[in-house]
Amino acid sequence: MLKQLQAPVRMELKKKKTSSSFQKEERKVGVDDEQVLDLSGMSLEILPVVISPSINIALVTTLDLSSNFLQSVPESLTARLLNVVVLDVHSNELKSLPNSIGCLSKLKVLNVSGNHLQSLPRTIENCRSLEELNANFNMLTRLPDTIGFELINLKKLTVNSNKLVFLPSSTSHLTNLRILDARLNCLRSLPDDLENLINLEILNVSQNFQYLTTLPYSIGLLLSLVEVDVSYNNITTLPNSISCLGKLQKLCVEGNPLVSPPMEVVEQGLENVKVYLRQMINGQHKNSVKKSWAAKLKRFSTFSRANVNGNINYQQKEGYIIPNYNRIGVFASPNYVYAPKGSSTFMGMFSPKRIFSPKSYFTR
Question: Which tens digits make up the pLDDT trace of 317-326?
């Protein structure tokens, strides 16, 4: 026999704090009382459409159905929750949410964690007052594609412990978002244009393990970030742009096969990581890319003092170009070549592009 609503319904009436000048007018329209309907922990397996004849469900502002055995929530019941602000259905056995959840235009907090949800109804995008969405510990494989275009007031999005492979690109349009928690998923990447999340303070994408291998450069443009956790992923390189995060106080990167910055730098603390990445941007670090072409010149001994007397056996050197070595009397750069007055050398002859050409001799 299925367990239904047998125990007495707990109904609480809480007075809103309002100024005396507005109390009379608010009582006329019936918005002076905040009604909380608590049906949590009652071992419910079925939720009746009519909970109690004495309860006007349209006046309920907080509905708590958590810690039961509910497999569904009636569509008709949800559609009548016209004034609900907080809806808590965590720790049930829900496999889906009613499509009528899109009727909850005043909903600000939705907790659906600890269920068996594989997806969220697309109609959730109509809950434009939503500020907090908790969908932790479900079986979600994706979020609605346009969720970021519609839930513009969302401040907290927690979807940890699911099976998400990616976050929709529209996530970057959640400009009021302050907390994004997507740890313990199967994320392959993050949206590229994260810079629009101008109010994001906490970003947690840890424990996606072997799946997450890179972070977008735009993460360094999230200037409100205070805490970033990317630990226990498969990341080898942190974006140099992280050095621009002036408000960042906590950076967790343990459990990654980091090469840049190396772990010895990470162990010295956040400020040393920022200095390292800043040097990479400015080309001051020995591993920076900016010096790569000059390093090749040195490697091939083209302008080395050791070659002044022409004693190098080029048949044994990598990068052999000129059969008989003559000292080069020019200045060379990737974009400019200067030949001294009277030199027979023609412009561009000794540019790095020609020096490293696979051809064995210059062609005219």
Answer: 344 343 444 4
